[in-house]
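hey so i finally got around to running the thing on that chain from the lab meeting. sorry it took forever, my laptop kept dying and i had to restart like 3 times. anyway pasting the input first so we r on the same page abt which one it is
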Amino acid sequence: MTIQVILPAHLRTLAGVSGDVGLALTGPATIAAVLDALEARYPVLRGTVRDQVTGQRRPFVRFYACEEDLSLEPAETPLPDAVIAGQEPFWIVGAIAGGT
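ok and heres what got predicted. didnt touch it at all, straight out
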């Protein structure tokens, strides 16, 4: 199965891609499987989406699919059926923080 992943502009630039990324998964379609496939295909992204030691999501990175925030879900959470079927993408979004 191929999962469509939408990356924020800064990660697309870092990875050297200009659009969505299609990632082939061979095992269960989970958040961790998507991130493993992304880092395997684009090693330069290792450590940018999740910590290399702990595997935890970086604080200002969010995951979305099918209008759901999956950011706080465990890494082994299965992706929604629409993402697996290729009807919806898996979004990796850079969060913005600020204040006055």
